[in-house]
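Ops channel
N.P.: pipeline sanity check, posting one input/output pair.
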């Protein structure tokens, strides 16, 4: 056989062998891995959505949601619980509807039907309550509870069964994926051994394929593994490379397609954007992880509807394909701020409460002692308030307190602090205000309240005790001085101000 023919034959065999390697590698490794990935992503997404909706239903319908608020209203008769029950009832209906779309097994649908039946009974009771609020408010608690009692044991068991079966499916899917992956690894090992002659040709492809898979896995894990918090990945120009569902919900982003057209600065309040852009660029030049404790002010996010909210953010930099990127984990602190504000607010008048007043007085005295700026205190009492309650009812008394607070607040500066001290007593701190100006304000408030109620069916007046802080004065001493001044105002006939001013000893 001529050398040329043999050479060409060997070339042809080499090319054919190489094609066989490519085809066999494609069939043995790449295609199954893609199928495994697609199946796993599809199953995990569905099962995850089921878990999310089951958890949502548990939260909105269970003893931390609708049932909790509904029972609280029956016991306490406070409108806030009824409003919360309405909101939770709507969320429960949405969760049940979503579960009906996600589950298709007869056994699961039966469980959902049990939950739906129990929820229908609660809806019926809720509708009766809304139609008969006046009657319900006069019924004894035990009688009302018996009338609106619902046996929710079946629904509770059904919800547990749904959760258990879905968790079992998750474990089964994970086990099956591990098994399939093991089979895939065995195929890969056999293929490499059998075709070792082409190892160096194949290794480049495998390394590139492995790198792509590793990058994809890193991105997927970084986005999905932190599901309780908002998670976002950005590049050096601030472009968003990926974000999890929590991020889209937190910032009201409709879709991933919309997200990819945006930068991280779109989710920062406009007044902070320039500073944030500068900080982001500096941070991406580093190789560190930070919770951004060095911020001199609290971090704020901005939803797409323009609403700003307090947040906590942690950021880490990563190296990906030679480019520096950043991953941020964001926690919405709106609820914590709301609870803090609620803990410092009087429920009836919406003024600050006594706890806040005591803390604020300590702060104001500290500033007074340090900077030697004047500080005056007004202790305000509504005259004969008990008579108003006894003669006209507590509702009228409550309205008097609310009106008095509104009149006082309308005449205070932003730096002044009004708090409900207790019952019908209020306290006002006036920083940078001497006793003369404080007395003028006190007299103005006395006149305003008297004039406001001059044409009312019952008179309302104020007695006000006024004092000014002195150096090294203890909070108890300044309160005693204001209280002494208040008693002088009462003893002198009420509807007036009185001043007690202690000189430094």
């Amino acid at each position: 056989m001529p050398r040329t023919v043999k050479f060409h034959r060997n070339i042809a065999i080499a090319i054919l062998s190489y094609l066989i390697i490519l085809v066999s590698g494609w069939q043995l490794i790449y295609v199954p891995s893609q199928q495994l990935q697609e199946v796993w992503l599809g199953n995990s997404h569905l099962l995850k959505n089921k878990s999310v909706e089951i958890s949502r239903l548990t939260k909105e319908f269970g003893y931390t949601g609708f049932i909790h608020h509904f029972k609280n209203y029956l016991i306490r008769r406070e409108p806030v619980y009824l409003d919360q029950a309405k909101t939770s009832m709507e969320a429960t209906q949405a969760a049940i509807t979503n579960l009906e779309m996600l589950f298709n097994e007869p056994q699961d649908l039966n469980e959902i039907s049990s939950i739906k039946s129990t929820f229908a009974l609660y809806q019926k009771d809720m509708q009766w309550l809304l139609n008969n609020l006046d009657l319900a408010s006069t019924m004894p608690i035990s009688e009302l509870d018996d009338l609106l009692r619902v046996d929710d044991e079946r629904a509770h068991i059904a919800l547990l069964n749904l959760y258990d079966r879905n968790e079992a499916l998750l474990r089964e899917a994970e086990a099956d994926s591990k098994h399939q992956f093991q089979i895939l690894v065995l195929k890969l090992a056999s293929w490499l051994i059998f075709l070792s002659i082409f190892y160096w040709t194949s290794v480049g492809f495998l390394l590139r394929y492995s790198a792509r898979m590793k990058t994809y896995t890193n991105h997927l894990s970084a986005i999905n593994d932190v599901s309780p918090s908002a998670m976002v990945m950005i590049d050096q120009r601030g472009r968003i490379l990926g974000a999890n569902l929590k991020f889209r919900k937190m910032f009201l982003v409709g879709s991933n397609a919309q997200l990819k057209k945006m930068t991280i600065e779109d989710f920062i309040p406009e007044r902070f954007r320039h500073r944030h852009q500068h900080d982001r660029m500096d941070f991406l030049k580093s190789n560190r992880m930070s919770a951004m404790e060095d911020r001199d002010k609290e971090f704020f996010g901005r939803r797409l509807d323009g609403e700003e909210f307090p947040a906590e953010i942690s950021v880490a930099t990563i190296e990906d394909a030679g480019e520096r990127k950043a991953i941020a984990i964001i926690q919405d602190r709106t609820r914590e701020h709301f609870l803090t504000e609620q803990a410092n607010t009087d429920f009836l008048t919406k003024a600050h409460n006594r706890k806040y007043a005591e803390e604020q007085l300590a702060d104001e005295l500290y500033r007074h002692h340090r900077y030697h700026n004047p500080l005056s205190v007004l202790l305000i009492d509504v005259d004969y308030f008990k008579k108003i309650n006894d003669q006209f009812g507590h509702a009228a008394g409550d309205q008097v307190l609310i009106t008095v607070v509104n009149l006082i607040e309308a005449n205070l500066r932003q730096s002044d602090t009004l708090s409900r001290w207790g019952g019908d007593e209020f306290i006002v701190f006036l920083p940078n205000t001497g006793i003369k100006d404080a007395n003028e304000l006190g007299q103005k408030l006395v006149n305003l309240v008297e004039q406001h109620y001059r044409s009312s069916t019952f008179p309302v007046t104020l007695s006000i005790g006024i004092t000014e802080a002195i150096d090294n004065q203890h909070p108890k001493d300044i309160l005693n001085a204001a209280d002494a001044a208040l008693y002088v105002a009462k003893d002198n006939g009420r509807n007036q101000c009185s001043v007690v001013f202690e000189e430094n000893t």
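N.P.: looks fine end to end. The chain has three domains: 10-194, 226-337, 344-499.
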